[in-house]
Amino acid sequence: MVHDEKSPWSKGAFFVFRPGFCRVSQLKWAKQEPHTTMSANDKLDALLAPVVEDLGYEFVGIEYSSNPKNRVLRIYIDEPERGIGVDDCEQVSREVSAVLDVEEPIPGQYTLEVSSPGIERPLFTAEQFRRFTGEQARVQMHTPVDSRRKFKGQIVAVDDQTVTLLVEDRQWELPIAGIMKARLAPDMDALLADSQGGSAQPDAE
User: Mapping DSSP to helix (H, G, I), strand (E, B) and coil, where does residue 135 land?
Assistant: First the structure.
């Protein structure tokens, strides 16, 4: 089998797997600078969402770190009925890699990662926030809201423009367009207790 420099598998792939989570990483390289008036994230969303969805997966969203010393493009995918395994991440990685090789939207060397959402699921859109109304989330804003950029609280309301978090005894209306990063923040102790609660218990006398 012949590998060229731009083959996504010529340098190998890195796999991470644990119950409820998987990720496939590979090193990539492109020559040209992107020519577009769109933001990098918007362009990547528009380019990659159809690829993921045509394979039958939910396109959750992307995280793109543009630091020239460590560029990383991370794509989150899901399949709500059965979850995501390593084979799913590998399949999407191959298809996405082929598109990236043609379009070259990211200049220079970068790492492509395809990942399941995991327990601390990232949230990108109003619909995703709406789906998890009632759950706890961590949100970081691009610019402060009332001198505050980081929030952790319950998602209590969502519309197309804002998400409302209940933080202690105050409700904060946060513009979705101004969110830098958001993730679910489940109670790990409660999840552990639930998982242990399923184990067999001794019969009562």
Answer: coil
